[in-house]
Automatic annotation (TrEMBL):
Protein name in UniProt: Enolase-phosphatase E1
One Gene Ontology biological process: L-methionine salvage from methylthioadenosine
Subunit structure and binding partners: Monomer.
High-level lineage: Bacteria, Pseudomonadati, Pseudomonadota, Gammaproteobacteria, Oceanospirillales
Function: Bifunctional enzyme that catalyzes the enolization of 2,3-diketo-5-methylthiopentyl-1-phosphate (DK-MTP-1-P) into the intermediate 2-hydroxy-3-keto-5-methylthiopentenyl-1-phosphate (HK-MTPenyl-1-P), which is then dephosphorylated to form the acireductone 1,2-dihydroxy-3-keto-5-methylthiopentene (DHK-MTPene).
Organism per entry: Venatoribacter cucullus
One protein family per Pfam: Hydrolase
Catalytic activity: 5-methylsulfanyl-2,3-dioxopentyl phosphate + H2O = 1,2-dihydroxy-5-(methylsulfanyl)pent-1-en-3-one + phosphate
């Protein structure tokens, strides 16, 4: 089946896990308490969502208890919880870090080269990450390889649903079908996480597993590659 559109994950796929875990998450944790205290009015709705989710998960907290909510959010960072309010907040906090030059987003060179090539070939490129859409835009606009944001036609985050749920990919595919007239079977989802690939396949997308730091399995559950430059071996219709 011809590939007519690429949907890609970020952490572990275009970019290293270490940049997210060892640079972005610690920066967010360090600056979160002061940021939330300074912006608690504007963040009221986000803090209410945090309180509701925490309470649902058995850790009741009042939506006006700023200090308790800060602790919940810090614990979620430590646990790498993909909670939408946390992801939105992280995006807001990371903006200052990117703009001050405290860091630039890591890109695997093969990912940058392939994304540039596919864009030049007019293959629509989309991102689906647990990071908020705002965080994704900052990430690619301030990458080690320069401003890559213009390469992408659009972005999806956990507002569309969790990345391990097939329904999320059905929603994304339906929207892209409406926008581009491309069927789910002509879309290729790239990720480093098997459960995300399983969910995408269940929604009818084609899948490729980026296995960056370990040997490829003999019979992987999804077509597996160590680098974007190996994708054309599995998907010969890719430009
Ligand atoms: C896009 S900004 C940092 C990424 C992030 O916060 C995250 O949780 C990574 O999730 P992904 O779905 O890209 O693996
Ligand atoms: Mg990932």
């Amino acid at each position: 089946m011809t590939i007519k559109l690429i949907l890609t994950d970020i952490e572990g796929t275009t970019s290293s896990i270490s940049f997210v875990k060892d640079v972005l998450f610690p920066y967010a944790a360090e600056h979160l308490p002061a940021y939330v205290r300074a912006h608690s009015d504007e963040l009221r709705s986000l803090l209410a969502d945090t309180a509701a989710l925490s309470t649902t998960e058995g850790r009741p907290v009042a939506s006006d208890d700023t200090e308790a909510l800060i602790q919940v959010l810090l614990d979620w960072i430590s646990a790498d919880k993909k909670a939408t309010p946390l992801k939105t907040l992280q995006g807001l906090i990371w903006q200052a870090g990117y703009e001050s030059g405290a860091y630039r987003a890591h890109m695997y060179p093969d990912a940058t080269a392939a994304l540039r090539h596919w864009h030049a070939c007019e293959l629509p490129l989309y991102v689906y990450s647990s990071g908020s859409v705002a965080a994704q835009k900052l990430f690619f606009a301030h990458s080690e390889d320069g401003n890559l944001l213009p390469l992408f036609s659009g972005h999806f985050d956990t507002q569309v649903g969790g990345k391990r749920e097939a329904e999320s990919y059905r929603r994304i595919a339906a929207e892209l079908q409406r926008t581009h007239g491309i069927n789910a079977a002509e879309m290729l989802f790239l990720s480093d996480i098997k459960e995300e690939l399983d969910a995408a396949r269940a929604a009818g997308l084609q899948t490729a597993w980026l296995v960056r730091d370990e040997p490829l399995q003999a019979q992987p559950a999804h077509p597996a590659v160590a680098s974007f430059s190996d994708l054309t071996e599995c998907f010969p219709s890719l430009p």
